[in-house]
Input
Amino acid sequence: MSIKKQFLKTKPAANVTFQFPAEAADGANKVNLVGEFNDWDTSAIEMKKLKSGDFKATVKLETGKEYQFRYLIDGQTWENDWEADAYVPNQLTFEDNSVVEL
Output
């Protein structure tokens, strides 16, 4: 898993690319990126499946903030980003959420 940040020079924003590897997806048909930036909408951002089997999505986010997020695999299994900037407890599931800091 990886998070790449490309900061924009003209705006207080960054293009953030989230990549979910094939080995973590374990044969998944789809992976959704779900987080504070889309009001935890489980269908808002469906990641593109690459030829390698990895899944990828790019989102423009405002800088100077941090955002909690998770990956939803085939609409059933939640997974964190192994390379997130931080982790915070999720009060609903008693698991952690990944955090990206900008």
Remarks:
- The chain has one domain: 2-101.
- The first strand starts at residue 2 and ends at 7.
- The chain has a mean pLDDT of 95.
